[in-house]
Design brief:
362 residues; 11% strand; single chain; seven-stranded parallel sheet; alpha/beta; Rossmann fold
């Protein structure tokens, strides 16, 4: 099924060159992190990630450096911050585009075991039972719906989770298109004065924050072939999923949106070399790298950082490998086309995310 999804997208990726800009895109600038009001938390997060690797089973290399792109060496002697008691913390994860096309095997940061769709959104996260969380699950948002529609689902789920008596803190993590879905939900709650006080942390992972040139160029062509994906087993599209990732739309939305100021915001992005990109992403990678070599094959790195956030990491990975366990698929063709061939300890990465964003202030 995954390959049936990837092949029509490869046709798109190999069609025509992506232009440098599109009419209607808001004026934007590229600035160093400090000037863009983005804090650089990479050093502290790298140390936290390495601590999680050391605590992992022996099969995992206890060295974070190969998995991250760093400006300075990891300080192995850095003192670990105090850890929060996570028994009253809930983690909600918003999947990305086509998430429900692959969700019987691959949900973000899941264990990669094949299950029924109903079970997968919770059971795939039993590997994190050691964290002692009040709960961790992925939200069942349609993989082929607009960010506006999915944002309403995210908002409802967030309010419902905040209503749990055993939860005091919520960590909301969005992946890929799940990030604009998440942001639209938060903006709606802010507009209505309903942002839960229990929402403490918002994390973007490989987020389509400022859109992607791929959506700008190929939205119409995608619409023309969208029906073929239903034949491959994907739920029907309700429309607007690719348009929600277009740069003019996302830029204009960010320019006018008012997001809640109470939670802390964090970003994790990906950047891979071509040889480390899954075969199904290489056509995209080639077109995007002509604009900026810092890409994960789906989004440009500078376009994936949330405003007013703390940048936790630049993963040495394509868009899928550090989040989705395609390499554990029982289907060899899925492994060959959608997995990069490089190991990535994504479970340790998620543990480091949760530990970092819940750490008590110094």
């Amino acid at each position: 099924m995954c390959v049936a999804i990837a092949l029509p997208l490869l046709v798109i990726a190999c069609a025509t060159p992506i232009p440098d800009g599109e009419a209607g895109q808001p004026l934007t600038v590229r600035l160093p992190l400090r000037n863009a009001h983005v804090s650089d938390g990479r050093a502290g997060f790298a140390a936290a990630f390495q601590r999680e690797l050391v605590a992992s089973p022996p099969a995992t290399r206890p060295d974070a450096a190969p998995y991250l792109r760093l400006d300075t060496p990891i300080d192995a002697n850095a003192s670990a911050p105090a850890r929060a008691d996570l028994r009253r913390t809930s983690v909600l994860i918003v999947p990305g585009l086509f998430g429900d096309c692959v969700d019987t095997q691959a949900v973000p940061f899941g264990d990669g075991v094949v299950r029924s769709r109903d079970d997968q959104y919770t059971q795939a996260y039993r590997i994190y039972d050691d964290l002692g969380l009040a709960g961790i699950r992925a939200l069942k948002v349609p993989g082929r719906a607009s960010s506006t529609a999915n944002g309403e689902i995210v908002a409802r789920e967030l309010v419902a989770e905040a209503g749990r008596g055993d939860v005091d803190r919520i960590v909301l993590i969005g992946y890929s298109k799940g990030v604009p879905d998440m942001l639209e939900g938060l903006a709606g709650l802010q507009r209505d004065g309903r942002v839960p006080a229990k929402l403490k942390s918002v994390v973007s992972v490989a987020g389509v924050v400022m859109g992607t040139p791929l959506a700008d160029k190929f939205a119409s062509l995608y619409d023309a072939i969208s029906g073929a994906m239903e034949l491959a087993g994907c739920p029907p599209s309700t429309g607007g999923e690719v348009q929600s990732m277009m740069r003019p739309l996302r830029g204009a939305w960010l320019a006018h949106a008012v997001l809640p100021s109470t939670p802390s915001y964090y970003s994790i992005v990906g950047h891979a070399d071509r040889d480390d990109v899954a075969l199904a992403l290489r056509g995209f990678f080639d077109r995007l790298s002509a604009l900026d070599r810092r890409t994960d094959g789906q989004v440009l790195l500078p376009d994936a950082i949330l405003p007013d956030s703390t940048l936790l990491a630049v993963a040495n990975s394509d868009h899928w490998n550090f989040v989705l366990p395609f390499a554990r698929s029982p289907r060899r063709i899925v492994q060959a086309q959608l997995a990069s061939g490089r190991d990535f300890p994504r479970e340790a990465l998620l543990r480091a995310i949760v530990r970092t964003v819940t750490a008590p202030p110094n």
